[in-house]
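Re-run requested by the PI after the first attempt was lost when the workstation crashed. Everything re-entered from the original request form. Ligand of interest: zinc ion.
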Amino acid sequence: MLKLPKRDFLKLAGLAIAEKLVPPWVRARPAEPSHAERKLVVVTFGGGCRYQETFTPQGLRNIPRLAALKTEGRFFSNCVNSGVLSHYNSTSSIVTGNWQRVDDFGFDRAASPTVFEYYRKAARAPATDAWAICTNKSFASMGATRIRGYGESLGANVVLPKQLLLEAVDEVIKRDLDQGVADRENVLRQLEGILNAGYEGIGWTIFRGGRQLDRQVKETLKRGLVEYIYGPEAPNSGDELTFFVAREVMREFAPRLMLVNFWDMDVAHWGAYSLYLQAVTKTDRLCGMLWDEVQSNPAYRDKTTLLILPELGRDGDQDTANGFLNHRSGDASCRNVWMLALGTGLEKGETDRPISHVDAAATVAAALDIPTGEMQGRRIDEILV
Ligand SMILES: [Zn+2]
């Protein structure tokens, strides 16, 4: 179980963010909206995950937490990704409500505003009220577009824990030798493990496009990471780090709208089915821990809806001997996944009619009671009761 040995991580950063990112005019915050402060957390069960390894009779053993939680929420058995089957576009479609077809490394922005921007603009919400915590390092621009009238000043704070971690490696290496060589080697081994948890491996690129956290905030985060890594319970994967950062953000800022992007199961591109299955089970565990946090955190309990969905599936075994490696065939096992909604404002049960990934943003906007521009997605009434 992940336990935070260094509570100061993000705490200091939080103060710094509050100081640095919240413009003075926002600090004079308008009165709280009169409707209930429903909070929304969208979690991508991410990296590419097939139905057959999850909500099928033979797959349930890989997802014990979600399998147990299914009856407590509303399960949508047919959630269809009709868009481009890449990580960036699929996730961007989830947060914009429109199918996106942009450069998949986040160099281009989405062609329609994100729900973060709609929310912050309509509710005049401060910068600390919308966050995207993403394992996928190419998601720097996931929080905002460049659409006129919207944009970064109204977007989500985007944290890429793995990128911060890489920069923290520099700090570790620069640290003086007082720590002892053995310790340093141990730390570097741990770092290596985390950095290799995605499929990119050595030589991966850091994408610097998109919103950069304020330099001082970033320095604080990096320092916190170094301290954390030196602690006794370092996370051992990118998604665990993402969970840890997400939980800290929830405890520090209690944002009303958050995207948590898990991604480790994309390790499947490397071809080891057992690693893919392990990642599925780890994601299940982290989703369960996020739900536990919602339940135990007074800022979230009884007022939060958690939407958990794979952003895409993976190729079916009928395409090749090892279909799980990729997600480019466009067949049903790539497109047809599921969504589990937990928490407040929903009717428990199961829905078989097809919904789609773009419906998530439309539903989030409706739950937040904010207007949006045109969306291809439709609101899902079962989670708007
Ligand atoms: Zn992939």
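Saved to the shared folder this time. The pocket of zinc ion is lined by residues 48, 87, 266, 269, 327 (CB under 6 Å).
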